Amino acid sequence: MTKAIKLLTALPQKQRDRLMELAREVSFPEDTRIFEAGGTADRFWVIRSGAVYLYQQVTPLRRVKVASLGAGDLLGWSWLFPPYQWDFTAEAFSPVRAYEFDGPAVLALCVEDPLLGLSLVRSVAEVLAHRLEMTRRQLLEQYELARRSR
């Protein structure tokens, strides 16, 4: 399995410094719903400490955990792609400290600094590819467990 991409360390120093000028420190208590699938995606976070779970609602009564995120991980990418709505629900599994970024402000900075924009999009794409592979493996494992229990 490939190593998880850490967004801030994946960016070149100059672009990371410019991005961090927009960062705001936030915290979420344990069991806080940070965002919900279908809601407006206008921000993202880089987790500093704690754990966040991403869930997908598969039926009205059942949801599946699709990812566990921790220190250094990117939380939220839907702010980057129309229609700017969350695809998953995110909840704090423990107390979480994070850097929060305003999506429209970051997009404006990316227009102003195309190298930052390219670096950010490449880094987010690497994160997405890694998470897609993790999700695929989890779904295959769940399918195999369900098949064996029949």
TrEMBL record:
<dbReference type="InterPro" id="IPR000595">
    <property type="entry name" value="cNMP-bd_dom"/>
</dbReference>
<dbReference type="InterPro" id="IPR018490">
    <property type="entry name" value="cNMP-bd_dom_sf"/>
</dbReference>
<dbReference type="Pfam" id="PF00027">
    <property type="entry name" value="cNMP_binding"/>
</dbReference>
<feature type="domain" description="Cyclic nucleotide-binding">
    <location>
        <begin position="7"/>
        <end position="76"/>
    </location>
</feature>
<protein>
    <submittedName>
        <fullName>Cyclic nucleotide-binding domain-containing protein</fullName>
    </submittedName>
</protein>
<dbReference type="InterPro" id="IPR014710">
    <property type="entry name" value="RmlC-like_jellyroll"/>
</dbReference>
